[in-house]
Design brief:
The complex is a heterodimer of chains A (about 425) and B (about 325). Chain A is built from 14 helices and 28 strands. Chain A is of the alpha/beta class and about 425 residues long. Chain A has three domains: about 150 residues, 2-Layer Sandwich (Copper Amine Oxidase, Chain A, domain 1), CATH 3.30.457.10; about 120 residues, Rossmann fold (3-Layer(aba) Sandwich); about 120 residues, Rossmann fold (3-Layer(aba) Sandwich), CATH 3.40.50. In chain A, a hairpin with a 2-residue loop joins strand 2 and strand 3. Chain A is globular and about 75 Å long. Chain A starts with a helix and ends in a 15-residue tail after the last helix. With about 325 residues, chain B is mainly alpha-helical. Chain B has a single domain, classed as Orthogonal Bundle (ABC transporter involved in vitamin B12 uptake, BtuC). In chain B, about 75% of the residues lie in helices and about 0% in strands. In chain B, strand 1 and strand 2 form a beta hairpin. In chain B, helix 3 crosses helix 13 and helix 4 packs parallel to helix 6. The longest helix of chain B is centred in the first third of the chain and has 31 residues. The mean pLDDT of chain B is about 90. Classes of the chains: A alpha/beta (about 425), B mainly alpha (about 325). At the A-B interface, strand 23, strand 24, strand 26 and helix 10 of A face helix 3, helix 7, helix 8 and strand 3 of B. Strand 26 of chain A pairs antiparallel with strand 3 of chain B.
């Protein structure tokens, strides 16, 4: 039996579905809301058989409402407890209580097994939309889900500068003005739509081949305009007047200032919508949220430890509690010794560092050397030095409010609660 | 005032030293500090390895800058002369940046201190050559060319930091570091530069007293003007270069201290030199104490404090001298 299960798992792993492009002859837009049994199909109100809800982080919808929307026939086979859903493009067979389904005859692994709720079959929406070639847009603020085919919704977006932009079609020539923005664009699958990045955009590899528009604090306006962008994606730290100028010239320009992991998540979702990759964005978010939850759960098992995060050694500089990194340290189960210091990037007094006696020292800058720390006069009695708990971290993964931030959180967690390394896979989940 | 100045200076110096040792991000009782100092084997780290070397470094850097200020005022025959204002510090800083850019910082131990000295020497020489027209130093041109060179060297430093991104952090923060990373090693580095300059300048007090009367007068009184000038150039560069190497650019100490002292004691270098050293050391110890305690445990660059004190003073001297 065990072998059989293993074989089944292996087989199902072999086939991962690639959502195929299906062109429906008419518009399909199904809008549902978590917890509400009222939905809208192409603007008309429809009653749902049960209110959509979240299970294991996935949205569950009544199969019947979905099949109606895509003009599919549903056939229930009581012997095999299976449901066949079929329209002109796709045929899917689900089995109640089984994680494997057959899509056009090919076995595919579902996010969870279909089950019966209130006499109706409940299926993960994500699988359904993939099988039937529909995009899913998830609006986390309204907890609303919009399922539609080729229709790009008219998107009204307001940025953190108060600038409002309307997208009627996905942008094809995007200029990113921050490394974190570039990482988000590539992570949601919009890498091909990017035409320009900053000199500092070094991740992922694809970003290296893009045209450079200058620095982060001093991008070149002429270079940006010459790339004929239809969307300039800015960030806090870009010159404000440059963004306003681009906006005045009729270029869709948005700048954001994510201040928490939640902010980063909603930005990823928004960029997924704007660039017309909502599925990839919510897939990414699902994985990031799952990994974050695992880390958060792990963190609870450990006692908090005192952490000194050094961002420069001459003079000694650390991070304040209102910074992104400061929040990450806290979430990773650390007590930031600089949390009471003034300023976001405080220059810390050496005496204070020694007195605070951090248990963990993390060096986040280029050319950092744990050996150098141990040789500093007066530092040898610090716990972190005595116990050799000095680590270096790639500053890009903790300073950039982008998709790698959860990797950063994980790295911090690993360093802070060192002995628990093995509890989580080391491989990055975002790649 | 004159009568009480020296005893009160000694008292103030001692008081600032005690205060500097007592206050910081970590609080100690005075008895504890005394105990630690007399029991170096107690294993205490903060006072012995961090605070004490820092306070002593502050004294020597302040003393060096103040002496460099006095000597440059003598060299340029102008009370507004100061290693910071005249671009000598930024010249030293530029050479440090340049050698970081070229990867010469690990050529030999403390090789940067040598480059710092060379930079200071080069920029002092440059200011001197530019402002000396037909054998006379024009005060206005001196002031303007000093300030212009200050900007020029700062721009060059910025240029190289943009060019070589690795250098960026190293040198951008270099000038901010001040005394916060000072160790016993800093003390060891600055002491030979300082004492050499101090001893030489004390031995030269007579020619210096004559030199300030003017070139022709000094020559007619039998002073070798070129030799004196050369020695002064080297001393200023030694003092400024070593200070910049230890603590980055700290301004206005060399402007304030000698001018106050000259107001009380006149122009006798035999008095001015030791008094400048003591007062300069005390002033920087005090400024550093403020910079590390006012927002504790966050430190602010000590140059902010010295500039806040120094700029109004600069305007006062400018108004008094009216070099135009």
């Amino acid at each position: 039996m065990k072998k059989l299960i293993l074989a089944l798992i292996l087989i199902s792993l072999l086939f991962t579905i690639t959502p195929k492009k299906v062109s429906y002859s008419h518009e399909i837009t199904l809008t549902v809301k978590i917890g509400s049994s009222k939905g809208y199909l192409n603007g008309k109100e429809v009653g749902l058989y049960f209110a959509p809800f979240i299970k294991n982080g996935r949205t569950v919808v009544p199969l019947r409402n979905f099949s109606n929307a895509v003009d599919a026939l549903v056939k229930w086979d009581a012997n095999t407890r299976s449901i066949k859903v079929e329209n002109a493009y796709t045929q899917v067979v689900f089995f109640i209580g089984k994680k494997t389904a057959f899509v056009n005859g090919v076995p595919v692994n579902l996010y969870f097994a279909p089950f019966i709720k209130g006499g109706r079959t409940a299926v993960p929406l994500r699988n359904l939309s993939e099988f039937f070639g529909l995009k899913v847009r998830w609006n986390s603020t309204e907890r609303k889900i919009i399922i539609n085919g080729d229709v790009y919704p008219v998107l009204k977006v307001k940025d953190d500068l108060g600038n409002e932009v309307t997208f009627n079609s996905p942008p094809e020539r995007i200029v990113s003005l921050a490394p974190s923005n570039t990482e988000i664009l590539f992570a949601v699958g919009a890498g091909d739509q990017v035409v320009g990045v900053t000199d500092f955009c070094n991740y992922p590899e694809g970003a290296l081949n893009k045209e450079k528009v200058g620095g982060f604090s001093n991008p070149n306006v002429e270079k940006i305009i010459s790339l004929k962008p239809d969307f300039v994606f800015g960030a806090r730290g870009n010159p404000k007047d440059l963004l306003l100028r681009l906006s005045d010239m009729g270029i869709k320009t948005l700048a954001f200032d994510p201040r928490s992991i939640e902010d980063v998540f909603s930005l990823i979702e928004l960029i997924g919508d704007i660039t017309d990759h909502p599925d990839k964005a919510s897939e990414l978010l699902f994985r990031l949220k799952e990994k974050r939850k695992k880390i958060d759960d792990e963190v609870k098992r450990f006692e908090k430890k005192k952490v000194y995060l050094e961002i420069w050694n001459n003079p000694y500089m650390s991070v304040g509690k209102d910074t992104f990194v400061g929040k990450l340290i806290e979430e990773a189960g650390g007590i930031n010794i600089a949390e009471d210091a003034k300023g976001d990037w405080p220059m810390l007094s050496q005496e204070y560092i020694i007195k605070e006696n951090p248990q963990i020292i993390i060096l986040g800058y280029m050319g950092a050397d744990p050996g150098e720390v141990t040789k500093r006069p007066g530092w040898k009695n610090i716990d972190a030095v005595k116990n050799e708990r000095i680590y270096t971290i790639d500053p890009d993964i903790i300073f950039r409010p982008g998709p790698r931030i959860i990797d950063g959180l994980y790295e911090l967690f690993r360093f802070i609660h060192g002995e628990s390394f093995k509890l989580l896979p080391t491989a990055s989940l975002t790649r | 005032m004159k009568k009480y100045f020296i005893p009160s200076l000694i008292l103030i110096l001692f008081l600032i030293f005690i205060l500097s040792l007592s206050f910081g991000a970590v609080e100690y009782e005075f008895k504890e500090i005394i105990f630690f100092i007399f029991h170096p084997s107690s294993g205490e780290e903060i006072i012995l390895k961090v605070r004490l070397p820092r306070v002593i470094s502050a004294f020597f850097v302040g003393a060096s800058l103040s002496l460099a200020g006095l000597l440059s005022q003598t060299l340029f025959l102008n009370p507004l002369a100061d290693p910071y204002l005249f671009g000598i510090s930024s010249g030293a800083n530029f050479f440090v940046t340049l050698s970081l850019f070229l990867g010469l910082d690990s050529l030999f131990a403390h090789s940067l201190s040598v480059f710092s000295f060379v930079g200071a020497l080069f920029s002092t020489f440059l200011v001197f050559m530019i402002s000396r027209i037909k054998g006379k130093i024009s005060p206005l041109i001196l002031l303007l060319s000093g300030i212009a060179l200050n900007y020029l060297f700062s721009s060059f430093s910025s240029l190289f930091t943009v060019w070589g991104r690795d250098v960026l952090n190293k040198s951008v923060f270099w000038s901010m570091t001040g005394l916060s990373n000072a160790t016993w090693l800093s003390v060891k580095v600055i002491i030979p530069f300082f004492f050499l300059s101090l001893i030489v300048s004390i031995f030269m007090y007579l020619p210096l007293n004559v030199y300030i009367l003017g070139e022709h007068e000094a020559a007619s009184l039998g002073v070798n003007v070129v030799f004196t000038r050369t020695i002064l150039l080297i001393l200023i560069a030694l003092l400024t270069g070593s200070s910049v190497y230890v603590s980055g650019i700290i301004g206005f100490i060399g402007l304030m201290v000698p001018n106050i002292l000259r107001g009380i004691y006149g122009t006798d270098h035999l008095k001015l030199i030791p008094l400048s050293v003591a007062s300069g050391g005390a002033l920087l110890m005090l400024s550093d104490l403020i910079s590390r305690t006012v927002f504790s445990p966050t430190e602010i660059p000590v140059s902010i404090i010295t500039s806040l004190l120094g700029v109004p003073f600069f305007f006062y001297i400018l108004w008094r001298e009216r070099p135009w």
